[in-house]
Amino acid sequence: MEAIECLKTRRSIRKFTSELIPKEKILEILECGRWAPSGINHQPWRVFVITNQETKAALATCTSNGSIIKNASCVFAIFLDTSEEYSYVKNVQSMGAFFENLLLAIHAMGLGGVWLGQIYNQKEQVHEVLGITDTSREFMGAIALGYPDQTGESDRMPLEDFVQFIE
Question: Per-residue pLDDT tens for 41-64?
């Protein structure tokens, strides 16, 4: 898939088939995420790859979007490593780039995914479900992914609503 087409056609997919994603594809998606830009190449991301049904069910209790998590083939629980903080704001910005790289790779590989942000509101519960006691790991969000069982739709505001040229 061409890069521009990938950017313009990626949509949030919330319904998945029951087909499992091969581990090789999951690793390729994570490899694409690894190349996201980060301040001074800090790469502050840490990922838990969750395919276990029981763990997904427990994680699903942390959000009103739990059915998406339960039905996904895989869930990435994504954390910011604050142990060697370069700049908190720049690290959080890098996390956004990491999420987007993952989502674009998922789409480019013919899979579907959705960035689950509401689960962030229960980050302490996520830590508990995943058994994370390391305080240097800060939960940032999750991506549910799988083979799509729907097509996504989206509108975008016109460029003139948010772009101003200073010439």
Answer: 999 999 999 999 999 999 999 999
Domain-located, residue 162: no
The H-or-E segment that residue 140 falls in is: strand 137-146
In CATH, what number is assigned to the domain containing residue 98? Answer: 3.40.109.10
Residues sharing a CB contact under 8 Å with residue 136, sequence separation 6 or more, in sequence order: 81, 82, 83
What is the DSSP code string of 42-79?
Answer: ---EEEEEE--HHHHHHHHTTSTTHHHHHHSSEEEEEE
Q: Nearest to residue 69, comparing CAs of 84, 82, 81, 53?
A: 53
Residue-wise pLDDT tens digits, 5-24: 999 999 999 999 999 999 99
Query: Which phi and psi angles does 12 have, rounded to 5°?
Result: -75, 125
Task: Report the distance separating Cα 40 and Cα 92, nearest Å.
Answer: 13
